[in-house]
Design a protein that fits this description.
The protein is α+β, with helices and mostly antiparallel strands and 128 residues long. It contains three helices and eight strands; from the N terminus they run H-H-E-E-E-E-H-E-E-E-E.
Length: 128
């Protein structure tokens, strides 16, 4: 028992000195310095597809016929405007009318990781 008390009296001043040591104050500074050097980690927040906020004028399709489905392929840019419109499956006159109608559509821009981004879109029309 005497040895235990003697050992604790010997160790006690060392432990008290360690509690008052300025090393504890330096630890947050060292951690902040390490964080400044470390590469930034980006978190994937997901993909949100563009949402159509206007509709196509259905009068455009009056008189248009096609034996196969008509497909309009385009990109919705970061402002929600269709770009690079390509119409497949119909004649040139009908394709021009559909291209004009699609170009008037407006979308809420799609997002990738919280940033507006250009997204490819496809619209299918059945003109039978």
């Amino acid at each position: 028992m005497r040895k235990l008390i003697a050992a604790s009296l010997f160790v006690l001043p060392t432990l008290m000195h360690a509690q008052q040591s300025p090393v504890r104050a330096e630890a947050p500074k060292m951690m902040a310095a390490a964080a400044a050097v470390a590469p930034k980690v980006s978190t994937f927040t997901g993909i949100i597809a563009p949402k159509r906020i206007t509709d196509i004028d259905r009068a455009v399709f009056v008189g248009l016929t096609s034996s196969q489905p008509v497909v309009a392929k385009f990109n919705v840019d970061a402002q929600g405007v269709p770009q690079n419109i390509v119409v497949e499956g119909t004649n040139e006159a009908a394709a021009a009318k559909i291209t004009d109608a699609v170009s008037k559509l407006r979308y809420q821009a799609g997002k990738l990781n919280g940033q507006s981004y250009e997204f490819p879109m496809i619209l299918k029309f059945d003109l039978r």
